[in-house]
Amino acid sequence: MSKVLVLHGPNLNLLGTRQPEIYGRETLEDIDNALREQAARGGWEMLCRQSNHEGELIDAIHAARLDGTTAIIINPAAYTHTSVAILDALNAFDGKVIEVHLSNVHQREAFRHHSYVSLRADGVIAGLGSQGYRLALEAVMAG
């Protein structure tokens, strides 16, 4: 069974209540449950993790290198624009990496227009809300 890791960065635990006009009303649990169902229908194993701590996200990426994970779907949130460390960890991962953002970061503040993670990502989906995660998973499962 193929395995995918979904990583959610800082503040995404507040989805549904934090700036719903930007991030929507779905909770992180809603998104993760929909992804688990989609993965199961495709015969994939899925692990979803959220952390407000950069080191925990990096540890999860390191573990994925060794546990048979085929792909990582990551919404690094604010770490998108600041974390060379997450980029370095992703560069050490041999599988597919898809970067996801709920909002269209290119319509927001200028500092959000740059992504370190994009330097490693095989694909980037931004501005489609939670559908972006589902499309990322579809792309991963398609190969």
TrEMBL record:
The keyword ATP-binding does not apply. Pathway: Metabolic intermediate biosynthesis; chorismate biosynthesis; chorismate from D-erythrose 4-phosphate and phosphoenolpyruvate: step 3/7. It comes from Halomonas nitroreducens. InterPro entries: DHquinase_II, DHquinase_II_CS, DHquinase_II_sf. Keywords: Amino-acid biosynthesis, Aromatic amino acid biosynthesis, Lyase. Substrate binds at N75, H81, D88, L102, S103, R112. The record marks R18 as: Transition state stabilizer. One of its GO terms (biological process) is aromatic amino acid family biosynthetic process. GO terms for molecular function: 3-dehydroquinate dehydratase activity. Catalyzes a trans-dehydration via an enolate intermediate. PROSITE patterns: DEHYDROQUINASE_II. The active site is at Y23 (proton acceptor), H101 (proton donor). It catalyses: 3-dehydroquinate = 3-dehydroshikimate + H2O. HAMAP family: AroQ (MF_00169). Its EC number is 4.2.1.10. This is 3-dehydroquinate dehydratase. Homododecamer. Belongs to the type-II 3-dehydroquinase family.
